[in-house]
Amino acid sequence: WNYHITRFVTSAPDIRHLPPDTGTEVAFAGRSNAGKSSALNTLTNQKSLARTSKTPGRTQLINLFEVTEGKRLVDLPGYGYAEVPEEMKLKWQRALGEYLEKRACLRGLVVLMDIRHPMKDLDQQMIEWAVDSKIPVLVLLTKADKLASGARKSQLNKVREAALAFMGDVQIEMFSSLKKIGVDQLRVKLDSWFEA
Ligand code: GTP
Ligand code: MG
């Protein structure tokens, strides 16, 4: 599919405000500031399709983008950010949990983690949930440009080994929006999910 022609559809505070639950959706999930919105912009080759920010907690709604009719990408609010008011956190978590549990057209989950701080508890929970729910997962270790190539590779191998031990066969790749690393792997994976 040509991801460059992706366009924004809507932002919703919860799943009741989303368009009908038909077609196929692939969602981008991860801790606040992991680089979800940036990855969407890199994939689609658009500077500001999804809003990015230095401040964690930028994406507060479920944002939907359409690649082509019936094929959508979803930018989810980040989890694990301590600095937001408790009430807001509960609201996002509810929206996120509901989306993951109830959205039948969800066919794939891209879980993004900063390569320097991967596999925190909430990341593991997210992946375990997806594996249990038979939702295929691609893990992207983001901001790979922040590490030298040796450190990058050893971090990737470490995460792959840890993942194998506790969650089986989950594909894990390096990614950088800045240096365009891992974009092809992401595209190939999305193509396979949208095709199925
Ligand atoms: P929330 O919406 O708050 O959950 O964050 P997010 O996961 O959408 O992160 P976002 O894409 O907004 O990026 C957060 C910060 O990381 C921004 O300052 C980005 O410029 C930076 N960033 C994202 N990707 C990369 C990358 O590949 N390399 C580097 N060096 N910085 C990146
Ligand atoms: Mg975001």
UniProtKB/TrEMBL annotation:
InterPro entries tied to this protein: G_ENGB_dom, GTP-bd, GTP-bd_ribosome_bio_YsxC, P-loop_NTPase
Source species, domain of life: Bacteria
Gene Ontology CC: one annotated term: cytosol
Entry keyword set: Cell cycle, Cell division, GTP-binding, Magnesium, Metal-binding, Nucleotide-binding, Septation
Stretches assigned to the EngB-type G domain: 22-196
A single GO molecular function term of this UniProt record: GTP binding
GO BP term, example: division septum assembly
Keyword GTP-binding on entry: yes
Cofactor list: Mg(2+)
Classification via Pfam families: MMR_HSR1 (PF01926)
PROSITE patterns: G_ENGB (PS51706)
CDD domains assigned: YihA_EngB
Gene3D superfamilies: P-loop containing nucleotide triphosphate hydrolases
HAMAP family for the chain: GTPase_EngB
NCBIfam families assigned to the protein according to its UniProt record, in alphabetical order: GTPase_YsxC (TIGR03598)
Function: Necessary for normal cell division and for the maintenance of normal septation.
PANTHER family: ENGB-TYPE G DOMAIN-CONTAINING PROTEIN, MSS1/TRME-RELATED GTP-BINDING PROTEIN
Family under the similarity heading: Belongs to the TRAFAC class TrmE-Era-EngA-EngB-Septin-like GTPase superfamily. EngB GTPase family.
Protein name, as recorded: Probable GTP-binding protein EngB
Organism: Izhakiella capsodis
Organismal lineage: Bacteria, Pseudomonadati, Pseudomonadota, Gammaproteobacteria, Enterobacterales
